[in-house]
Amino acid sequence: MKLVLYDGSFAGLLTAVFEIYEYKVGQPDIRKAGTANGSLFGNPHTVETNLDKSKRVFKKLQERVTPWAARQLYNAWLSELKDIENVILRYIQYSLNTKLAVENNYTHADVLMIQQTSRKVHREKHRMEAFVRFQLTRDQLYYCIIQPDYNVLPLISKHFEDRYADQRWLIYDGLRKYGLYYDLEKVEEVQMNFEADLNSLQHLQEVFDEKEELYQQLWKQYFNSVNIGARKNMKLHIQHMPKRYWKYLIEKQ
Length: 253
Known about the structure:
By secondary structure, the protein is of the alpha/beta class. Helices cover 45% and strands 13% of the residues. The protein has helices at residues 10-22, 51-64, 67-78, 84-96, 109-131, 153-163, 201-207, 212-226, 234-240, and strands at 2-6, 28-32, 45-46, 135-136, 142-146, 169-173, 178-182, 187-191. The strands form two sheets. The chain has a five-stranded mixed β-sheet, with helices on one face. Strands 2-1-3 form a three-stranded parallel β-sheet. Strand 5 (142-146), helix 6 and strand 6 (169-173) form a beta-alpha-beta unit. Helix 3 crosses helix 5 (109-131) and helix 4 (84-96) packs across helix 5. The termini are far apart. The relative contact order is 0.08.
């Protein structure tokens, strides 16, 4: 087993795939740098991300699979599941070793894994787009904190840039400790360290705009007014809005 270390980016992963072919690495095991003990694998191969190499791999892949299938690999990588890099590697190897269409061959374990994982990530993307609740700070910044199961910030960026193009906003992933900041012109990735009690009442009173509490009360009243008690179905409600999302939903506070 040959350990192949990459920097944790998708371009880095594709560069690793390129170099596995380039250097004829036998029995590769791709992992993010810093997550594996290299001494267990002997001398590891460390990959330096090369955009030209990564683009060549992706271009070659697009010649063998549909654009959506190629997109599924990116979605699956965003899942951050253990060993997903090697599943992607085997998928690419399989697609390059056959002239047949591979993306619908669900009898192949890696194809099925990519399809199922991509679907889960895509579902999480839509949930985040629906469940984001912005709050307005004193300096007129709309911010929210989310904790998605998967790293979907790169997938929801365009949705919020298009929908909220006239206001500054920040969406922060509390699990992965980074966020997306829109300054009315472009979206940038930012690294931040929010305090664990950021949503505490005392802290919010210090940073909230003076009208934010009123807006939240109005939203809660609207939410309650459209809720028909006689037709309440908590099982269905939780199915569409799982409890793990309630922590940052204003109407659930």
